[in-house]
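Worked example (supplementary).
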Amino acid sequence: MIGLYRPGTSALHRAPAGAKVAALAVLAVAATLLVRTPLAGAAALAATLVAFAAGALGVAAWAAQVWAMRWLVVLVAGSQWIFLGPAEAAAGTARVVTVLLLAAVVTMTTPTSEMIDALERALAPLARVGVDPWRVAFVVQLTIAVVPVVGSLWHRVAEARRARGVRLGPRAVVTLLVLALRYADEVGDALTARGIAPAARR
Amino acid sequence: MIEAHGLGVEIDGATILADVTVALAEPRVAVIGRNGSGKSTFARTLNGLVRPTAGRVEVDGVDVGRAPKRARERVGFLFTQPDAQILMPTPAEDLALSARAAGVPRGEVASRVAAQLEAFGLAAHANQPAYSLSGGQKQLLALAAVLLGAPRILVADEPTTLLDLHNARRIGDLLLSGAGARQVVLVTHDLDLAARCDVALRFEKGRLAAVGAPDEIIAAYRAEAA
Amino acid sequence: MIEAHGLGVEIDGATILADVTVALAEPRVAVIGRNGSGKSTFARTLNGLVRPTAGRVEVDGVDVGRAPKRARERVGFLFTQPDAQILMPTPAEDLALSARAAGVPRGEVASRVAAQLEAFGLAAHANQPAYSLSGGQKQLLALAAVLLGAPRILVADEPTTLLDLHNARRIGDLLLSGAGARQVVLVTHDLDLAARCDVALRFEKGRLAAVGAPDEIIAAYRAEAA
Amino acid sequence: MAEERQWEARDIARIAVFAGIIVALGFVAPIPVPGLVPITAQTLGVMLAGTVLGARRAGAAVGVVFLLAAIGLPVLSGGRGGLGVFLGPASGYLIGWLPGAMVVGLIVHAGARRITWWRTALGAVVGGIAVVYAFGIPVQAASTGLGLGETALTSLAFLPGDAIKAAVATALTLALYRAYPPAFPAPVRRARAVAP
Ligand SMILES: Nc1ncnc2c1ncn2[C@@H]1O[C@H](COP(=O)(O)OP(=O)(O)OP(=O)(O)O)[C@@H](O)[C@H]1O
Ligand SMILES: Nc1ncnc2c1ncn2[C@@H]1O[C@H](COP(=O)(O)OP(=O)(O)OP(=O)(O)O)[C@@H](O)[C@H]1O
Ligand SMILES: O=C(O)CCCC[C@@H]1SC[C@@H]2NC(=O)N[C@@H]21
Ligand SMILES: [Mg+2]
Ligand SMILES: [Mg+2]
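After joint prediction of all chains, the assembly is encoded as:
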């Protein structure tokens, strides 16, 4: 699975993941509180362009993100215009779009592995209530390895169905689930054998 | 009869198979070669599971790329992993699925299924959950299902790899003895089994490296691996 | 050193393994027998993946049933399916996982991983997605990961079944040549590989049917299958 | 006690595999509808996690999907991911998947000695639909500035699809119970093993 990360060497790329996520949280709250007028909205959107520049992501990437949100923009702006008037609609839409664009900057400048490390550190305080941060981060990585396998199992079922010339409909999912769960058992055994997690106590 | 003309397969820009031209009329065809040499890909083009990106394949005169459905009626396929091929919860249901697809009238399905279970020594397991069958029993079931369709050509991709000596011999015998009634293409790393065929193909890096008498082809392959 | 005393395994009321008593000090142990005869179950009791319901197993004097964790530190395990064993997205990450589990200090993990990748000819694939490796490369990676833990005993359950002649030989050599540094238990249907061991066990219907010189045990097994 | 709550290896693997299935369902037939909240096959995976794994493991599987999204992997339908998915108008539904899957698991498994079709269907509808909407509608209303009532009306668009998914989840669960009982947690599995 390929992440949404865009490799680079900008200041934002070099900044620690935890700091970026914390900054995002602060900025999201600030935007919600401060962006109340169309002018403030325009300023906020301009600021997102600066953020994209700081990540060396370029205007094209910014535009692509905005384009991906076109329906959101149309619907939020439209409904707020009807109920709250044009000024509120402009400010409200800018607010939502700003936060989503800032989140995209963090996503695009932070590699998956750094995010996982940051996740592990962020979860450290939860160790006292019985959450093992390493284990959580591990399951996340395990899932990343598992996704393509699930895809290949699905591919195998589809091939078998075609080769046998039979129709299964949704029943194919049962076959997939059986294969996937048996695969899970094999992975579970490998986890145990590699000394990563305990086996069942029968 | 299998004919490939300048057959090539590219996936995501990578050449998996290139320039395979061969005509096979022999009843038993062995396909050998190293991991990743393109054997499975070649086998899969024979029933349209993989589409050629260059050239074409014909089975009994049917162009597989143009008429994959008609080709598939003629070509049965047996996978290495029987698990993936068994699509229904029990052997009886699984065979019924194939029987219906093969056009057996509704009223006769049950008796055809019973007869096939009997013929493959699976009668006692008719309604046992399929996952709990042994490896050999699963491969027998998969073969029984394929043969219900009475294919003119049977392609088997390493069908004996997971089996013990006894079961491998049994499946091997069933596959090769049926030849005559049908043509069999057998992809295998088991060189003793390959030696029992009438002609052997050896793939290397996506190309057909050699075609000929199994003994010679196998001897050359062994020599190289050593 | 492996010792089983009246070892038995029952699952859901079915007897899978019964009354296995044997002491194995030989560096290379082959385990053969038909599909479903109990080979994998026996292998799994050696590192506690399957718990005995009768009797016990000891590895280097550690009772596996009582101290599975301590036993597992001593016993590495290699499965048939490399896919299920590779737990991380890339070879480098997967080896790092094993290194950390084996207690390599954080600062030395990277260099240990690099050295191991090099030793197994995988350096060029360090950061390639693991699912895109070939079958042989996957099995090499799985073996590299197991050996990072420097197990005193290595149990391998049909580790070469999915491989071609060349890769099978490579993995087989790696497994058997390491013997001396460690004891190797090799479950296999490949009788030529089994013949290279120092002692062979043959299972039959959940019981240990024979123990002895590989040549004799294999000859008897072949004779029966024919 | 602490010992008791620790996951065993096979549980961890199942959590990862079900998270993988939910992700994989995101690639299935993404129906492009112009709107704030996508129609997605992933809710089928959420329901199945609950019916098959039970409350705790199902919750963990959905939680893993959230973490994958948060660290920037394109795991939601249409290849979306990143922290933004927790901030948009659809985020309430998304968050609702977690309690939703757990409620499905509770209804289907709590005190159950076997899997029954009516508990499975009830679980899928209550946990997989009602609970998810209960989280989704208020958040959507707040983020769009539309009233709760109007927002609830727009969410009716999902109902036919979600009803079908609940029916499919029920049928699949019962079929899986027949085809592979070891998939289910121990109490249910044992009851099935003795049953004819
Ligand atoms: N869908 C695919 N996408 C990319 N590469 C592929 C795909 N299918 C096959 N390949 C690659 O094509 C090559 C040939 O694969 P193929 O499965 O035909 O080999 P094979 O001879 O059957 O090997 P084996 O003996 O291991 O079964 C391999 O290198 C494989 O990785
Ligand atoms: N968890 C289980 N539940 C029920 N039966 C099981 C279980 N595990 C194994 N068995 C059965 O126990 C018997 C022995 O299985 P095992 O896997 O040890 O055989 P094997 O000798 O390794 O066979 P193969 O050569 O096919 O790998 C088989 O009949 C199998 O179906
Ligand atoms: O992908 C996301 O960001 C979250 C999608 C939430 C979709 C909701 S869940 C309930 C309802 N049913 C659907 O098919 N879509 C919505
Ligand atoms: Mg192949
Ligand atoms: Mg076995």
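Two points are worth noting when inspecting this output. Chain D has one domain: 2-28+35-191. The pocket of adenosine-5'-triphosphate (ligand 1) is lined by residues B 11-12, 14, 16, 33, 35-41; C 134-135, 164 (CB under 6 Å).
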